[in-house]
Amino acid sequence: MQDLREYFERIEEAFCRNRLAPLLLSPLDFERAVEWHAAGVPLDVVESGIAAYFEHLAQRKVPLRRAICLSFAEDHVLKALEAHRVAAVGRAAGLSEPEPKGARVTRFLESRAAALEAFSSDSASMRAMPLLSRFCARAALDLRDLMLHADQPAVKLETRLAPLDREMCGLVLLESPQPLAEGWRRSAVERLGTLAEGMESGVLRQTVDRLACQTALAHWHLPRLSLLYLEE
């Protein structure tokens, strides 16, 4: 995996190349790229998703200059990532036919629900992090309900999973001991390096929290809920 600066610059280049016009992506676009980088989404998958998004615009005869935000291509990146994963699983297993639709997602949801249930039922967690503990109990029920619809398109599933993932990230930083949370944020700023210098304060704070969240969840043995992390 490339470092964060190279990753972002390659995505920016791909977006501008497909748009057929120069465009500097916004700090919010950078935050999206940070999430893909944290999830280990390969650059060629992101580039493929961006290309598919612009092909979609061309088919609909939408002027390419209307594409001004990286998040517009997010659904296509997720589709490209799913296709990449299905192909990789088939090659690794020597399979000529893919698994039944939804089987991998079902396993993903089951493992996440079990981890959330374990956290929410732990007495120490309930005392130290009551908000997060209650959230985990509710989210586990949501995931088990979603297992009944695991064969739905990944993009549709992600509309339910991404908000849960964001809420859990916010709560884990909110209720973690302050010295720990501050240390995770300092490490995130160091990881951003010079990229942090030109970012608006609000966007920088959100981006730092995105990176710190990854460390915080790992510390508490909690999983990411977004389908971006399906392979973990």
Protein architecture, described:
The protein has 232 residues and is an all-alpha fold. It folds into two domains: 4-93, no CATH class; 103-229, no CATH class. It has ten helices and no strands. It has helices at 4-19, 27-38, 43-59, 74-93, 103-120, 123-128, 130-146, 154-175, 178-192, 201-219. The longest helix is centred in the C-terminal third of the chain and has 22 residues, at 154-175. The two termini are 15 Å apart. The model has no long low-confidence stretch (mean pLDDT 87).
Please give a quick description of this structure.
The chain is 70% helix and 0% strand.
Task: Please provide the count of β strands.
Answer: 0
**Arithmetic mean pLDDT:** 87
Low-pLDDT runs of 5+ residues are none
- CA distance, first residue to last residue: 15 Å
Number of helices: 10
User: Given the C-alpha coordinates, what overall shape results?
Assistant: globular
Helix content: 55-70%
Compute the gyration radius: what is it? 19 Å
Give the SSE string.
HHHHHHHHHH
How much of the sequence lies in strands comes to: under 5%
Helix/strand-derived class?
mainly alpha
